[in-house]
Amino acid sequence: IETVVYENSVTASKAVAKEIADLIKVKQSQKQPCILGLATGSSPKGLYAELVHLHKEEGLSFKNVVTFNLDEYYPMEPDSVNSYVRFMKELLFDQVDILPENTHIPDGTLTKAEIAQYCSQYEAKIEVLGGIDLQILGIGGNGHIGFNESGSLQNSKTRLVALDHTTRVAASKDFLGLNNTPRTAITLGVKKIMEAKRVILMAWGESKSNIIKKSVEGAVVSQVPASYLQEHNNATFILDKEAASKLT
Ligand code: F6R
């Protein structure tokens, strides 16, 4: 696993945006789609702002980009203020020239009976396109990636999961209290994340420093799903100084 430390999250996010822009352009020149795996939450906000900037100021086109988001709360209506559909539209999709039909986010409106088949179709769509070229990740305080919480297996598939209490507490400020915070979510499984050709995990701030140390320097254990990335051959943790502060 590679770790790269930046002075702050702004410079770090710009570097990640540059890598993504370069990949999009290489794929364009090859007349190939560029398959991106995307995350929500606070960590990638600066990245999406920079990608929007590159589109508006430097003409970066997303016409050949296909995206698959990691997760969505369940149940969740797409037009709800807290939906990841809304997050992605506001911060990225509605501000660039990506084709709406090329964006994919797990559907929070399914019935329980529909979820299993939907999840295998979500994975099949990724496979048909040849897999994820570049996967963006944040990390939960407990080491979750996507909503693969502690205990998620390395070969876990896309599925409905129960959110950890700590994850719900972190989300509860957006939902105006724990009682309104969803208990479940649909997440891409660890297996598809590990199959991505390139993985970039971004983490900012002192509050992530302990879990970053465990994930990078600790044992590879299901308790800390981000530690699985030690076994990925092209994964980089992009950190600010604070998030990296406990690394030896
Ligand atoms: C979001 C996701 C989560 C977040 C993680 C960190 O799509 O998959 O794993 O990346 O909870 O969230 P922030 O960035 O808000 O600290």
UniProtKB/TrEMBL annotation:
Domain (Glucosamine/galactosamine-6-phosphate isomerase) ranges: 12-236
Signal peptide interval: none
Protein name stated in the entry: Glucosamine-6-phosphate deaminase
Full-protein residues shown: 19 to 266 of 642
